[in-house]
Amino acid sequence: MPNGEGSCRGLVLRSTDLGDHDKLLTVLTAERGKLTICAKGAHSLKSKYMPVSQQFIYGDYTFREKGEGRWLKDGSIVESFFAVRAELTRLAAASYLMAVAEVLALEEEPDPELLRLSLNSLHLLTADKYPVAQIKAVFELAAVSGAGFAPDLVFCSDCGKKTPYPAAFDLAGGVVYCADCLKKREQAAQFGEGREEYTALTSLTPGVTDALRHILSGAGNPFAFRLPEEELRQLSGICERYLLFQLDISFKTLDFYHEVTSS
User: Fold this and answer.
1) pLDDT at 189
2) Domains of the chain
3) What is the average pLDDT across 36-41?
4) Angle, alpha carbons 181-184-186 (nearest 5°)
5) d(CA 162, CA 159)
6) What predicted TM-score, i.e. pTM, was given to this entire model?
């Protein structure tokens, strides 16, 4: 890291207490990916850094760089998504999405798409335009796909034929199977009871298949679709499990989200 001054416009994914006085900010930027910035004294309500050192703030930041560290010099708010805290389910979802973005973002690796997806998701969580489960599902599938884990939902993994509506989605492999090939696999007992490959398979309805393909298409607004409540619940579970299978990681924020939504 060069010594001197730097600047960025970014979204605070996480704000961590550093001792009794300071905060450590994890900021997602378009040009430099994920940056870590220390905000000295930001704990104090009188600090000029306090307003820009909160999670869900999108702002402009200038900082001093020395060695491996960055220290905040100044900041201003471009947009605040603090309103997401007004409702517990939306706060839990937003916290989880920011945790996913933090895992996927890399230091000094430009990622404008992840930043755009994060900002759009926070905006929709505060706007109450779509169900929370739908916003969460779109973010999960789009984010993990943008990180290089996009599934193939068009061609059967076994026979290679284009599959209008596949019979099953392999969440571990990121592939689908047509009805004929799935039947052959089951008959050959390649998916025995209790095997990981079998537990990773999930069935797809036409509506859920269309929604998954719409999210991945890159055409138009990925959030703009409608599903009946039961199919939306299935979509949400599929996108969540797919992300967890691909990243092989757990999130405490996701556990909290489930606690909130199940109560």
Assistant:
1) 54
2) 4-80 (2.40.50.140), 102-262 (1.20.1440.120)
3) 92
4) 110
5) 9
6) 0.91
